[in-house]
Amino acid sequence: EAQVTQNPRYLITVTGKKLTVTCSQNMNHEYMSWYRQDPGLGLRQIYYSMNVEVTDKGDVPEGYKVSRKEKRNFPLILESPSPNQTSLYFCASSPPGTGTQKLFFGSGTQLSVL
Amino acid sequence: GQSLEQPSEVTAVEGAIVQINCTYQTSGFYGLSWYQQHDGGAPTFLSYNGLDGLEETGRFSSFLSRSDSYGYLLLQELQMKDSASYFCAVRAAGNKLTFGGGTRVLVKP
């Protein structure tokens, strides 16, 4: 089944403890991206990647890192999480020829930073 | 930067028609897309407009006017399962994708 897989689904951590949220897609998509969703603010793009080893900042990149060593994986790294990073996170990928606008989303990761 | 405006909430009855407007301000423009998100779920792609005009997909249609920096999503023959949040999104220069704040649609019997 074609899908975007995120893990974990839920994560509770403490301030300053490094964490990684994994994202993997099996559709051979070149474009991948990360979003956070907060009530009343919609989805805000954190980082995106047009292809392997090519990443760019979105609208809210501060406090986050990403890497794209393989086409299928695009992990989101929080080196020193803070409470203001408590949010619902979504990974997404997009097939070529859609202007990166037809996104397939993962199920989401609800992160709580205490 | 980019900004998108859409109404926060719309209520309608089953069988009715709902139009969700989206106005945008962007530096560069490469298209407008729409997503549906049910409570507790992930957004799912509904439609994309790269050029002016109407795109129809079943009960849902989307319209774009680039000269007016405006688009809308039209939901026809509303069903209870259409109760969800709907987001417009714009791709601007640099491949960034910006979403609107979302419109919560409540369908009543």
| Shape type of chain B | globular
Order of helices and strands of chain B: EEEEEEEEEEE
Strand content range of chain A: over 45%
Low-pLDDT stretches of chain B are none
Protein structure class of chain A: mainly beta
Number of beta-strand segments of chain B: 11
For the secondary structure, the number of strands of chain A is 11
What does the average pLDDT of chain A come to? Answer: 94
SSE order of chain A, as H and E?
EEEEEEEEEEE
* Total number of helices of chain A: 0
Supply the helix-strand structural class of chain B: mainly beta
User: Terminal Cα separation of chain A, in Å?
Assistant: 36 Å
Q: Return residue spans of chain A where pLDDT drops below 50 for at least 5 consecutive residues.
A: none
Percent helix range of chain A: under 10%
Q: What proportion of the residues of chain B is helical, as a percent range?
A: under 10%
Into which percentage range does the β-strand content of chain B fall?
over 45%
Most extensive interface:
A-B, 26 and 25 residues
Give the radius of gyration of chain B: 13 Å
Could you characterize what this model shows?
The complex is a heterodimer of chains A (114) and B (109). With 114 residues, chain A is an all-beta fold. Helix content of chain A is 0%, strand content 50%. Chain A is globular and about 40 Å long. Chain A starts with a strand and ends with a strand. Chain B is an all-beta fold. Helices cover 0% and strands 57% of the residues of chain B. The radius of gyration of chain B is 13 Å and the shape is globular. Chain A binds chain B through residues 31, 33, 35, 40-45, 48, 50, 56, 58-59, 90, 98-108, and chain B through 1-2, 30-31, 33, 35, 41-45, 48, 50, 87, 89, 91, 94-102.
